[in-house]
């Protein structure tokens, strides 16, 4: 992108001197373009379920004398309303964490607890597809952060693993110490992500396959939330994936106290 400059001229002192300021506006323009795109995307994402809802309401009016049809359309209205709710919830979560503000209530977080809480919240969806959720290596590890946000991030990763995997497969959540960090990985045996898309999946509203994402109830914001949660914690999220065999998402988070395990009293570590 070409660099663009804005020039400002300001009077200075009483002898007719002027101050000429050349500002680099490239970054400001980029930020504005990103914001405009985001607002356009949000509007589009909101319009879709609202449009479906009003169409369904009309259809129900026409089908008033067919109770079976009324029940069916009412069910679809509930589904669309739920989608709207998820979208608004995700937008609120995202706006809370992407502003670069400090995380709300930082403290030591046992990895075992957040992993099991996230798994519990995804169990119903997994069971519906006979997908087994397993955890390993989480005992004794602690990270530094906000437990609610970390559960939200893990839940998004596990939800995706379930959504983009066939029935009767396994999703494994594992943790391991890595120097002054802890790595928590979510691995699935799902459809995988084409290499060309792997960099973009963390962008808001980017989807490899929009129809599939909507069909599984996705808002297109899950991975953007995961990314912002990890960055807000001073960590990062990475992906490894192979089309047709599966994906592994890894959250790298700072260990509480600078070391993944509690330092034993006999340790000579400085
Ligand atoms: P969505 O609500 O669409 O799932 P996300 O931000 O969570 O939005 O993910 C963005 C896109 O990345 C998804 O639409 C999907 O194409 C892809 N994706 C995310 N997780 C996985 C996964 N575990 N396996 C395959 N594709 C995935």
From TrEMBL:
Subcellular location: Cell membrane
The keyword Nuclease appears for this protein: no
A single cellular component GO annotation: plasma membrane
Gene Ontology process terms (BP): cellular response to phosphate starvation
Annotated Histidine kinase domain residues: 41-257
UniProt keyword terms in alphabetical order: ATP-binding, Cell membrane, Kinase, Membrane, Nucleotide-binding, Phosphoprotein, Transferase, Two-component regulatory system
EC top class named in words: transferase
Name by which UniProt lists this protein: Sensor-like histidine kinase SenX3
């Amino acid at each position: 992108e070409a660099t663009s400059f804005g020039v400002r001229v300001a009077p200075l002192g009483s002898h007719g001197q002027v101050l000429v300021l050349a500002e680099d506006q490239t970054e400001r323009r980029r930020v504005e373009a990103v914001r405009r795109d985001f607002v356009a995307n949000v509007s589009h994402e909101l319009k879709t379920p609202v449009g479906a809802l009003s169409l369904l309401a009309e259809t129900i009016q026409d089908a008033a004398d067919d109770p079976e049809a009324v029940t069916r359309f009412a069910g679809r209205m509930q589904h669309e309303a739920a989608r709207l709710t998820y979208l608004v919830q995700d937008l609120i979560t995202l706006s809370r964490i992407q502003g670069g503000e400090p995380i709300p209530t930082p403290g030591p977080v046992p990895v075992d607890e957040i992993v099991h809480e996230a798994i519990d919240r995804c169990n119903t969806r997994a069971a519906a597809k006979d997908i087994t959720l397993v955890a390993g290596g989480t005992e004794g590890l602690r990270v530094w952060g906000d437990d609610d946000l970390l559960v939200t991030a893990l839940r998004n990763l596990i939800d995706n693993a379930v959504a983009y995997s066939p029935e009767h497969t396994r999703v494994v959540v594992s943790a391991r110490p890595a120097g002054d960090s802890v790595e928590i990985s979510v691995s699935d045996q799902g459809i995988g992500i084409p290499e060309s898309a792997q960099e973009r999946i963390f962008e808001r509203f980017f989807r490899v396959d929009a129809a599939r994402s909507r069909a599984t109830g996705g808002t297109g914001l899950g991975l953007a939330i995961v990314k912002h949660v990890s960055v807000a914690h001073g960590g990062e999220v990475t992906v490894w994936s192979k089309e047709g065999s599966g994906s592994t998402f890894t959250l790298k988070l700072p260990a509480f106290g600078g070391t993944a395990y509690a330092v034993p009293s006999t340790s000579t570590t400085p």
